[in-house]
Design goal:
Blueprint: E1 2-3, E2 6-13, E3 24-25, E4 32-34, E5 41-42, E6 47-53, E7 61-62, E8 71-72, E9 75-80, E10 88-89, E11 91-96, E12 99-103
Antiparallel strand pairs: 1-5, 2-9, 3-6, 4-6, 6-12, 7-11, 8-9, 9-10, 11-12
């Protein structure tokens, strides 16, 4: 399982400047949580939720079906493993200005790591 807090790995939200403000993730340990339990433990192949500001458009946008996209309404989540390596794109379920949900790929290397 992954334990997410705020320090080492990188969560990058890439948005067109005209659509969204500069993203900011809640930094008190509750900004990135398991979508089912709202705990910080996130396993490979599970959904997680990101809370913050500037994460997506002003109105809720939900993916239209599978496969879930890696970009939705200008929102994108890229995870870089703590031990280094190539960035991993996450699939998005929904996005909104203050919240989004993404799928941590089952191929993500196992590690105890943190989001920055």
């Amino acid at each position: 399982m992954f334990r997410f807090a705020v320090v080492v790995a990188t969560l990058m939200m890439l948005f067109p400047v005209s659509l969204h403000a500069q993203p900011s993730i809640v930094s008190d340990g509750t900004g990135v949580v398991n979508a089912s339990s709202y705990l910080a433990d996130i396993a490979q192949g599970s959904w997680f939720v990101v809370f913050g500001t500037g994460l997506g458009p002003a109105s809720l946008t939900v993916a239209s079906g599978v496969p879930f996209p890696t970009e939705l309404a200008g929102s994108r989540v890229t995870f870089t493993p703590a031990g280094g390596g190539a960035p991993i794109e996450c699939r998005l379920w929904y996005t909104y200005a203050t919240q989004l949900a993404a799928l941590l790929p089952s191929t993500t290397p196992r590690a105890t790591t943190t989001f920055a």
